[in-house]
Specification:
- 46% of the residues lie in helices and 13% in strands.
- The chain is of the alpha/beta class.
- The chain has a seven-stranded mixed beta sheet with strand order 3-9-8-7-6-4-5, with helices on both faces. Strands 1-2-11 form a three-stranded mixed beta sheet.
- Strand 6, helix 9 and strand 7 form a beta-alpha-beta unit.
- The chain binds pyridoxal-5'-phosphate (PLP).
- The site of pyridoxal-5'-phosphate has 13 residues, from helix 6.
Length: 461
């Protein structure tokens, strides 16, 4: 069979369509051969011990085959060989990067790196125990006080991972059979996992639809004890900002708790770069649980919950992911603390990031690219509306020297497949102009040449 390299555009398209069809038929046949009968479990129990026969493993294999058929390199697990700011080095090549959360350039900042090294020199590479036992170090409390001061609240608790923070805190505070959690339908996986873990009744309200949230609460509030509303400051797929004042109004009206995940907003949005509280100018005490991760603007690793002292004290003595887990490492605490202090004193970083995002968005809109509802944040999607197109576009851009991650089905519905650009304070005007031009050029070409190339129907549901 031809490798497709010397074919005309027309021939290439036909070949792709044929391969996709064959693949869909093969996938369906293989699924039918290995999945359990509709009536119950398979008689052949050996299939439950062979990972290659697990349907989800077969789906992954099918996805790799699709990459091959589309003649694109695997865009996942690419090795970035150094610090990633506006640029990165992959396979010895320098590329413009739009794939890291280093929004305000603090990962790689010499002051932040030095703080991590100093913390290691002082406290070692691990605190070697849960903080409730012998893991507590002065740097932990210092960091927690700094976080609380950024948000204007009484106290905070710091955990080893952002993801684990949501899982363990939501999972622990909310209870099966008594409580209700209402979370935005575009919530991050860690929020959903926390809701599932809690066993509480959980309902996803339509994205940003506070009217619907109000309606659900009017109907259901009476049936539950605690009610938790969970939203995000900036939504990581679309780059839109939650209408925080409305959610505060609703949570007060219905006596609910409000939790805001600021993974993508803290350090980035607002006139001082201090997140969604700063963006809307609300009082920190209006929100019950402020959450964010250290893996983005804080240039570290970990997560926090900030709020009233009584809540933080309770969580410190009871949250499983805190009590039964090691304290955040000295290096991570040191880096996050240094970053938090810089965030406060150098708001120009967030403002530069906002300015860059504004320029990217303006240029993309002028080209007619679909950037969804992104506004005032550093997350800008370019929606291709087709997973195959998103994959081919990301590959073409990579070859042009631009690294950006495609988001494909099943992470988003196929017709919402996209490239997701993370803008940073380090990007230059030239890099942004070059990138938007290249996106437009390649997307126009791909749509013309490969209009009917899609992921196999069997794969996109
Ligand atoms: C909204 C949101 N919450 C939580 C997390 C988890 O944070 P971490 O990756 O630092 O564990 C992420 C990570 O991307 C996120 O986007």
């Amino acid at each position: 069979m031809s490798d497709g390299k010397n074919l005309s555009v027309e021939e290439k398209r036909e070949l792709l369509k044929k391969l996709m069809k064959e693949k869909a038929a093969k996938a369906a046949a293989s699924q039918a051969a290995t999945s359990a009968p509709a009536s119950g479990f398979s008689e052949d129990k050996s299939i439950y011990t062979q990972f290659e026969k697990f349907p989800e493993v077969q789906t992954l294999v099918a996805q790799f085959q699709t990459l091959q058929m589309l003649q694109v390199d695997n865009p996942y697990f690419r090795v970035n060989e150094g610090i990633v700011k506006d640029k990165t080095r992959i396979g010895g090549r320098e590329l413009i990067s739009f794939s890291s959360y280093n929004y305000i350039g603090l990962s790689g900042d010499p002051r932040v790196s030095q703080a991590a090294k100093d913390a290691i020199d002082k406290y070692g590479t691990s605190v070697s125990a849960s903080r409730i036992a012998t893991g507590e170090r002065p740097i932990h409390k210092e960091l927690e006080q700094e976080i609380a001061s950024l948000l204007g609240v009484e106290d905070s608790i710091v955990l080893v991972s952002g993801h684990a923070t949501n899982v363990t805190v939501i999972g622990h505070l909310m209870r099966a059979g008594k409580d209700l959690i209402l979370y935005d339908s575009l919530s991050h996986n860690s929020i959903i996992e926390g809701c599932v873990l809690s066993g509480a009744r959980r309902i996803a309200f339509p994205h940003e639809n506070w009217e619907e949230l109000d309606r659900i609460l009017t109907e259901m509030r009476g049936d539950y004890e605690r009610v938790l509303i969970v939203i995000e400051g900036v939504y990581s797929m679309d780059g839109d900002i939650a209408n925080l004042p409305k959610f505060i109004e609703i949570k007060k009206k219905h006596h609910a708790l409000l939790m805001v995940d600021e993974a993508h907003s803290m350090g980035v949005i607002g006139p001082n770069g201090l997140g969604i509280r700063d963006y809307y100018g609300v009082n920190g005490n209006e929100v019950d649980l402020w959450m964010a991760t250290f893996s983005k603007s804080f240039a570290s690793c970990g997560g926090y919950i900030a709020g009233k002292k009584v809540l933080i004290d309770y969580l410190k003595y009871n949250t499983p992911g805190f009590v039964y887990s090691v304290g955040i490492s000295p290096a991570n605490a040191g880096a996050a603390l240094a970053a938090a202090k810089i965030m406060k004193t150098e708001p120009w970083r967030a403002l530069k990031c906002q300015e860059n995002a504004k320029l990217f968005l303006k240029l993309a809109k002028e080209k007619g690219l679909n950037t969804g509802p992104s506004k005032d944040s550093a997350v800008i999607p370019v929606i291709t509306g087709n997973s195959a197109h998103a994959l081919i576009l990301a590959d073409a851009l990579f070859k042009e020297g631009i690294n950006v991650q495609p988001i494909l089905y099943p992470a988003v519905p196929d017709n919402e497949a996209r490239l997701r650009f993370f803008i940073t304070s380090d990007h230059t005007e030239e890099e942004i102009i070059f990138t938007v031009n290249k996106v437009d050029e390649h997307l126009t070409r791909i749509r013309k040449e490969m209009a009917d190339v899609t992921f196999p129907k069997s794969m996109i549901g």
